[in-house]
Structure prediction request, 913 residues.
Amino acid sequence: MRKRSIVPILYILFLLLPIYWLVAMSFKTTNEILGGFSLFPQVWTLENYRVIFTDPTWYWGYINSIAYVSLNTVISLVAALPAAYAFSRFSFLGDKHLFFWLLTNRMAPAAVFALPFFQLYSAVGLFDTYLAVALAHTLFNIPLAVWILEGFMSGVPRELDETAYVDGHSFPSFFLRIFLPTIKAGIGVTAFFLFMFSWVELLLAKTLTAVEAKPIAATMTKTASSAGYELGLLAAAGVLTIIPGAVVIYFVRNYIAKGFALGRV
Amino acid sequence: MAKITLDKLRHSYLPAPSRPQDYALKEINLDWRDGGAYALLGPSGCGKTTLLNIISGLLTPSEGRVLFDGVDVTGLAPDHRNIAQVFQFPVIYDTMTVRQNLAFPLRNRGLDPRHIKARVDEISEMLELTDLLDRRAAGLGPDTKQKISMGRGLVREDVNVIMFDEPLTVIDPQLKWTLRSKLKELHQKIGVTMIYVTHDQTEALTFADQVVVMQEGEIVQIGTPVELFERPGHTFVGHFIGSPGMNIIPCELRDGTACIGDFPVALAGPVKAVSQDARTEIGIRPEFVKIAGTGLPAVVRKVADLGRYTVIEAMLGEVRVSIIGPEGDAPERGSEIHLQFDPKNTRLYADGWLATEEGETR
Amino acid sequence: MKTVNNRAWLFVLPVVILVAFNALVPLMTVVNYSVQETFGNNLFFWQGLDWFQQVLRSDRFHAALGRQALFTVTILLIEIPLGVVIALAMPRKGVWVSVCLVLMALPLLIPWNVVGSMWNIFTLPDIGLLGYLMNDVLGIPYNMTRDPVAAWATVIAMDVWHWTSLVVLLAYAGLISIPDAYYQAAKIDGATPWAVFRYIQLPKMKRVLTIAILLRFMDSFNIYTEPFVLTGGGPGNSTTLLSIDLVKLALGQFDLGPAAAMSLIYFLITLLVSWVFYTLMTRNEN
Prediction:
C-alpha cells in the first residue's frame, strides 16, 4: 500500500471510534458503565437487547420506519423520473426558476415548519399514517431525486430517444422498456439517497405520528428516557437503528462506486 | 530530436506471464530514424497503444529497452524523456485560455516568460490559432481542442518525438481531412519525429513515410505505403490494407509449384524453403485479378458498381475471390467466368508469412 | 440543444403538486403567524411587520445568527478541504474502493438523534471513550456540559464526523470521472502534483463541490436534532444554534409570532446566500 492510503485509514478509524463505543456500551451492564472506564465489556451481557426485544413497541417501530421510508422512496422516484426527464430533454417556460424553487425546499428550517405540518396533515386526516410521513419527506427528497436523476439522464445521448421512436416505440414503451433500464445505476444511487434522508430524519416523522406509525428512532428515545438514564439500553437501541442503514449500504455498495462514475457529476 | 530504438521489447499486463498469449507485446525490435513520419497501424487490441505508452514512458515494459539516440531511457519518467503525446480525446486545461494552455509545458520547465511568449506566438501562427489565443479553451470545438493539444507538444523545442494516439477519433469527417493535411504540413516544416497510431489505413497511408503494421502484439511488416500495398509481408497486411483486401486462396505445393486445385499458378518469384506441414496460401490483390476466356473457373456471386470501378465477388470452389474490374461491362450474377492472375503480383504465403523470393518484381 | 416544449410541464406536474402541497401550505401558515398576535384560544390580531422589526432588533436573534454563521463557516472550512483530501487519497480501483465507500457512508445512515446520543455517550467525562482519553490519559480537562469551548469543539467534531463523508463521496465521484489521458498529458507536460490538482482535478470537481457546499450550507444552517440531543444548546446558550433557538421560542415560550418572523428571516438569508453562491459558481457555464 502506498503512503497516501494512511489518510483514508485514519479517517475511517475516526468514523468507527464513536460507533465502536456505542456497540461496546450496549453489551455492558449498568454497573460496569457507571463503575468506571473499560475499553472492552468485562462481562458481556445481552440484557439490554432482551429488554428492547420483549417490548412490542420496538418491533413495530422497525416496521413503521421501513414502511414509510419505502413508501417515500417509491413516491419520490415515480414523481421525479418524468420530471427529471423533462428537465434533461426539454426547455420550457420557467424551467430554470422551477428547478431553483425545488431546491429551495431544502432550505426551510424543518424545526419551525413542524407545527404547520402537524396542522396540515391533521386537517386532511392523514395524521399518524405512513402516508403522512412519506408525503412530508417528499418535500426535501423529491428535489434531491430530480437533481440527481437529471444528471444521469443528461448523460444519455438524445439519439437513444430518437432511435426508439424511429423503431416504432411509443413514449411510455420507450421510457419504461429502454430508457429506465439504461439509467438503472442512476436510479439505484437516487434510491439510496432517498432512503438515507428519509431514514435519518426524525423531527417531521415524530411530529406527524403518535402510535400507529411511530418511527423506530422515536421509540428509542422514548424507551431510553422512560427507563431513566440507562446508558446501556440507550446504546443498544442506537445500535439497532444503525443496522438497517448498514444493510442498505452493503447492498448498494457497487452502485455507489459505479453509479457515481456514470452520472454527469 | 532523436533516433528511437526499441530493443527486445516485451510487455505483459499480467504479474507472471508464461504463455505467449499473456503478452500484449511479443518481442519488438525496431529502429526509428530521426525526423521520420511513422504510423503504427493495426486493429483494436493489437498492442499499438501499449507500444506507444512504453515509448512515452507512461508504461514500463516487462522486458527490453527503449533507447533515444543510443541512450537507455527505459526507466525515465515521461517528463524526462522530452516527448509529446496527443491523445484520442482532446486533453486541454479547461480553466486556462488557449495561450495559457500552449505556454503550460514551457512554464512548467521554468523558461523565460519573454521566450515563452515568442514561442507561443510562433506555434499558434503555424496552427492558425492566433485569433483564439485569449479565448477560454473550454468552449472550443473538438478539432480546435485537438490542435491545442498538438500545440502543447510543438511549442517545446527540445521534443524528441511527438506521438499521436488515434487523434482524429472525435473529429467530424470533413474536418479530419483538413487536420490531417495540417499535420503533414507541420511535419515537413518542423521535421520532428512523429509517430501516429491508428486503425484507419487511410490515415496511416496518407500520413506516414513508413508504416508499421501490428497484429496480436507483433510487428508483421514495416514498409512504405507502396510496399505494404504491393508486397504484403503477411496475409494479415494484405487483408488489412486495401479495399477490398487481398484475396487469400488456399493452395498446394507440388514440386515447388503452387497449385489451386489442379491449376498451377505462376508466382512473382521462386518459392522459399517451406516446411512440409505449413499452411500454404496464394495472395493476390483484387486489382490484379482479370476475367478472361481461360483460367481458373469461378461463379459470380455478387456485383457492386462503385462508380469508377466495379467490385465482383466470385466463388472459386469454396473460396470467395474479389475482382476489381473497370466500370460497366460486368458479368451477370450466377454466370461462369475464368480468372487469370497477374504473375508479378501473385505470391505464396506459408503460415501467413510471405514465402516468395523478392527482387524480381522490381 | 434542448427542444422547446411547454408540454414538458405535464411531466413536471406531479412533482410541482407534491412539493407545493408540502411547501406552500406550511409556508403560508408561517407567514400568517408572523404578522399576527395571539393570546391563545385561536384568537389572532393583525400585527403587521412588528414581529419582524422586533426580531431584527433583538440581541437574542443577533447572537443566535452569529453562532449559526460561525458554526456553518467553521464546518465548511473543515469538511470541504478534508473531504477533498480524503477523496484524493482514496484508491481508484479494486476491492478497497468498496470497503472505503461502505465504511465512509455509515455515519450518513444513522438517524440524527442517534448521532447525538452516540456522541453524548462517546464524550461523557470518565465514562465515554473520548472523555476518558482527554481527562484521564492526556490530562486535558474536558467536560462538554460545563465548558462552552469544549461543547463547541464537540458539536463541530460531531458534524465533521457526520457529514464529511458526503463531501468525500461527491468529490470522489468527480475525481473518477476524469479520464486517464488528462493525468498522462499532465505528466508529459511536466506538471507538478500541485499543478495537476489546480488545473485538472479542481476544475473537474467544481460541479460536485458546488453541490457539496450548497448541501452542507443549507443543511448546517437548518441543523437541529444532533446538537439538541448532544448539548441541548448549552452550556448556557453557547451552542444554541438558530433552529434550537427557534424551537425554544416557538414551543418553549409559545411565542409563535416572533418565531415565525424569525424563521422567515432566516429562510430568506439561506435563500439569498444559496442563490448568490449558485449564480457565482455557474456563471461561466455555457
Remarks:
- The mean pLDDT of chain A is 81.
